[in-house]
Write a structure and sequence with these properties.
single chain, about 160 residues, alpha/beta, 2 domains, 5-stranded mixed beta sheet, two-stranded parallel sheet, 5 helices, 7 strands, about 30% helix, globular, disordered N terminus
Amino acid sequence: MATAPDPEAGPEAVLLLTPMTIRPGTSVKIRSPTNFALYAGNSTPILLSAETSVTLQSTEWLYALPTLPLTDQFVRGWASLPDELKNRILACNLTSPDGVPGPYRQETRPLFWETKPPEIREWFYAHLRMGPEIAALSREVYYSGNIFNLASTHDEIK
């Protein structure tokens, strides 16, 4: 006898196979076949396991990074996607509404990674090492989808 899903049980858990960014105040139910690293705010990552579903929610940005290696099935699926969709997927990790910080900042403003770790540039560098196709798409997404914040101290302006 088949049973219908319980409408009060809420949404089904998302299977965590690729990195996931979760905005502050958002609640997401996930499960993962392997351990995953969870970053919250500027914290050191916590290694978690969620073979059954777990709900993640925080007042800070959350980053869930699976430790599962990608399979040939993922590679074939990725290759079948149009570039427009690949760009939108990459934009989830490579763009920020807060902009990308320059090498200098005003002392009164928090460091970028204090509000959105790991630093977006590190994610960009990781994507550049993934192979020629992803590197090319990542460059396009990173440089066309971000605002770059540059500042200098008064001493540097002559």
